[in-house]
Amino acid sequence: MGYIEQIRALVGHRPIILNVAGALIVDELGRVLLQKRTFPSETWGIPGGMMELGESTEETAKREIFEETGLTIDHLHLFNVYSGSELYQAENGDQYYTVSTLYTTTDYKGTLKIDPSESDTFEFRSSDQLPEKMFPEHRRILTEFFDLKHSNQKRQIK
Prior knowledge:
Elements: H1 3-11, E1 16-25, E2 32-37, E3 43-45, E4 48-50, H2 57-69, E5 72-74, E6 77-83, E7 88-89, E8 95-105, E9 107-109, E10 119-125, H3 136-157
Parallel strand pairs: 1-8
Antiparallel strand pairs: 1-4, 2-3, 2-10, 5-9, 6-8, 7-8
């Protein structure tokens, strides 16, 4: 039984705070790797997941990326930390708030592997190719990332 399951055994469906970490994996064309998840069906998002006891956020991002994609990532750069008052509810009734730590990296190795229990597919996408059906908070993160990237490119051109 993992940490979250142990907590849920104690508190039931009541709200808890979950720490999650992920990475914006950027290819040589500046596109970001997105994951089409099996749950909720057909929904795209940024690879990542929940922290386990004793992990740093960097370790969580690396472990989750490897588990979900088969890729090994390194040289993580903190992009931003997201939290807020939005209460989420899982299909089973579990309620939670998130504190999400996102990193960026261009340092990835391996071959993408699909775990059918978590993913349908993966694709690198640019800002003008974001899927229609995405987690709203992931769309906000990607919009912020691409806006910052484009504004930095304009500064370098001047």
